[in-house]
Design brief:
It is a single chain. This protein is an alpha/beta fold and 827 residues long. Helices cover 53% and strands 10% of the residues. The relative contact order is 0.05. It folds into five domains: 122 residues, Double Clp-N motif; 178 residues, Rossmann fold (3-Layer(aba) Sandwich), CATH 3.40.50.300; 137 residues, Helicase, Ruva Protein, domain 3; 218 residues, P-loop containing nucleotide triphosphate hydrolases (Rossmann fold, 3-Layer(aba) Sandwich); 92 residues, Helicase, Ruva Protein, domain 3, CATH 1.10.8. The chain is built from 36 helices and 20 strands.
Length: 827
Amino acid sequence: MAGMERFTQRARRVLSLAHQEAERARTNNIGTEHLLLGLMDEEGGVAGRVLRELGMTSDRVREVIRRVTNTSVSFDSTQIELASDTQQVLEHAVEEARRLGHHYIGTEHILLGLVRVDSTAMEVLRRLGVTADQIRRQTRRVLNESASSSPTPAGAGPARGAQPNAKTPLVDQLASDLTTKAEEKKLDPVIGRQMEIERVIQILARRTKNNPALIGEPGVGKTAIVEGLAQRIVDGDVPAPLMNKRLLQLDVGSLVAGTMYRGQFEERLKRVIDELKQSGAILFIDEVHMLVGAGAAGSSVDAANILKPALSRGELQVIGATTMDEYRKHIESDAALERRFQPITVEEPSEEETIQILKGIRSAYEEHHHLVISDEALEAAAHLSSRYVTERFLPDKAIDLIDESSSRVRMYKSAAAKESKDLFGQLRQARQNRSLAQEEGNAEDVKEWEEREIELTEQIERLRTGWDRANSPVVSAEDIAEVVSMWTGVPLMQLAEEESQRLLKMEDELRKSIIGQDDAIVAISRAVRRARAGLKDPKRPIGSFMFLGPTGVGKTELTKALAKFMFGSEEAAIQLDMSEFMERHTASRLVGAPPGYIGYEEAGQLTEALRRRPYSIVVFDEVEKAHPEVHNMLLQIMEEGHLSDAKGRKVDFRNAIIVMTSNIGADVIKRQSSLGFALKRDEATEERLSYEDMRKKLNDSLKRAFRPEFINRLDATVIFRALNKEDIQKIVRLELDKVADRLKEHDLVLTAAPEALAALADAGYDAEFGARPLRRVIQQKVEDPLSDKLLGGEFQNGNTILVTLDSDGEVILERQNEPEKAEIPAV
């Protein structure tokens, strides 16, 4: 079968309509009957005209198809493909085009191919009293009429937007006519952009070098400007030189497709240029940079070089559209090509302009989704997409947000969607019952179920096409926020009562796993509540904190607990060990290697992690060890809330919590002999004074290690207290609780005597390393003996295991038969 590039736009639309018909009929194969319906529905094609002149209507064809077909009950919309007889029809269509001397394949060729295959479609035609000979004669008559009324080869007309008197058969195959679409009201209204449209018109009206190039980021509305021009041409709101001009959008892919041999592409492009010169049409090329190198093979000339002479002399008018990066890379680098285009920069619209654009196109989306879109939803789409979807541009991202939110509301909140689902279930059951009746040979039941199928199909069609605005669901700002949250992972929905209560009790939750660090817990909790209440500075991260204090007191543990509280998993924290970034060249690993260096194509370790998970906790462990270049990056993150990676993409940190841990002043802490176990329990005042003294000395150390501008950008410097004996015992309980949780899988209970807790606390605390050795002590004194006894069979399912001391004060494990001791209390 020929490649799709030879099929006209109308012929391709017929295949698309046939696919839709197969889907509507819930069959996995696109049969010839669906192709016949596609030919009927494509009213502008030659085939549609032929069939209508023979007295056929879509309703009559559908009625007969229902009688002659038996739809399979197993249906998978992802597995729809061409039936074998449909493939034969398309192969015959290619032969018919060749026989008639046509270079394209139009709807008339598909119709002529259809009557050559004895299939369901031919059975439908026979029942309607139409023969193959009648179709051939009528098709010949229509083609002859077209040939006599226009020198354009018959069938080029079926291409979208072709005009009867335009001598552009090849262009009509490769391009779509925007002016025809504008006449048929198939283009969305263009709101604003009047200055850009006027500038395009001014350049087009020049005598030479009259080729505008629209340059702007993806999604800012470059194509919409050209569509606005098409609408103004149709309305007659243009100067005399542009009156009645055709505006054609070229598909560069179709231009290149099928040109395998040297010279084919050049020949095709020359024909396109000649046709455009004769017709005076304006050509719009989206992604115009693709012309550079297009079609070049070996020593062949690429499309850009073939176009240059015609562009320079003003014989050919082209509107190009491309991004700034592509323009700089492909067009600016070719000075001869650049001087033939007049650049027009298309800036991203503001939020207010975006809201006006959304209001202008609202009705189209309401009609498509059968619902109502509120003003609040439009405003939320502009504001939230601008604030949280940072890698894309307005108005495209706001329009996408409206579209997806409308789709979601229709899916989950529309009564029609639920009713349609019920009707489809009834239709499926009716088809099964009809099939059973056919197998049993019960003609009355078959007829009854066929009528029921027709009735249900009509109800579904009415639901699909009908729309009662008064009873339609409404898209609200909350629906928009839900979709933004799905896109970005940032919770934006209104605070539910449960979440509000949870945030108010955040300190209590964190204290369950973090012992003795109330100052740190309170500072973090306040920052999170400010962010969720919408009171934080919108340009900065949720919070930037420096954690200082002795080693092993819970700095890293607090970040894990915070990640678990906010995201449900300790793994949600992005942790970076700054000891890996001590050299200047290692700093580039955070944002990606610069161009020309090995690893340039690889993403930055920090920036890529944030791009994928913008709502997260970023931990810079032992930040004082990082190179000053890394500190400079942190300055920008804390102040501006973003960082650019090696490819120039802005990565948003405004929804992240930045935590830096440091061991600065560790030598000061070691000299604080009055902290920890050196204090007696009744010397709390001395402990507080010693903590204040340590706090002052640590702040002094911090000022010596970091520049003032770095320290001033921190929301809080949190100094962790050294742990006392009571704190260590609580941590022992926490660690033993974890062991007890693991033992529950084996139906075992673990308890501990108070004296055992005290002994483990004494053994596990080190003035220099804090609570770090504690886990190792519990592993050696509890987990190792426990695993030996479990493997030795000393403990059985249902036993209670007691952690206690022997006569020598050593920690031992024994089976407890009587429930004398309480289970380890949760902290």
